[in-house]
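Morning run. Coffee first, then this:
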Amino acid sequence: MADDAQYQLPATMRAAVIHATGGVENIRIERIPLPQAGPGEVLVRLEASGLNHVDLFVRSGAYATPLPFPFVIGRDLVGSVVRTGEGVGGFAAGDRVWSNSLGHADRQGAWSEYVAVEAARLYPLPAGVDARRAAAVLHAGATAWLGLFRHAGLSAGQLVLVEGGAGAVGSAVVQMAHAAGARVIATAAADDAAWCRGCGADAVLDYRRTDLPQAVHALAPDGIDLWWDCSGRNDFATRLPLLRLGGAVVLMSGLRGKDPLLPVAALYTRDITLHGFAISNAAVDELVGAAQAINRLLADGRLEGRIAAVYPLERAAAAHRALAQGGLHGRIVLVP
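And here it is:
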């Protein structure tokens, strides 16, 4: 167990908690007992955390998952190790680390001054990487890696259509696909085109174009290999004809919208495969694979996210309101 005498740990800490799922008004800043690093766990001091839409769904109850009340909200964590529990190796006090699978499935979240994390869900932060910069991409980066490689099996030379390419997940999908040697067509608002190109998109189309399917076809007359709509619009009727024979679709957004009609004939007659997934369901070994890829790209400066705003822990409810209202160009990052 690491020596924590130098840290003068308090008995209690500040945390953003809810006592029941529901509206943003349920979020409270309270002092709760400091968590202990039990067997197989690591006690981490929070430096930064990113706010994701799934955090809103968990807090509101829209995404049903077992929660221990009072429940500390927040999915992602970047911080430094304070102490390690029994049986934990590979981490020592002072190590900078991160996690992106807290705050659901009976696990307490990250929005507190200290967090007890299962060692299997904790990863080293590459040297020199800023905590806020990392917090802005951890959830999106893992989502992108799982969808592109674990589910769709993307390979170099393939052509990907990423809709909503300027959002947090969309940007990560563009960057990871580009890093893997794929070609990318992204859709986004006109003022986000430069950002998408900087992420590695070979072409960027305004998502509001009335002739968008025709514009994609002109760029990919032989068809695209993979379609990923990060915007949640999921326009199957006009997008499936753009896929080549044997193409694939990744589905991971749309919880807030209506389920679209599925054109079954267009799917089975052209051997198109649907890959639906939620990162919350990912197994520990899958998350480890994503973490290794994220760390390589972070270390090389090839995985970047935009930060729209930084909120202190005391304004956790305001951060949730801001994300729910929309219109942000980048992630909200929370700091203690």
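The longest strand covers residues 41-51. Good start to the day.
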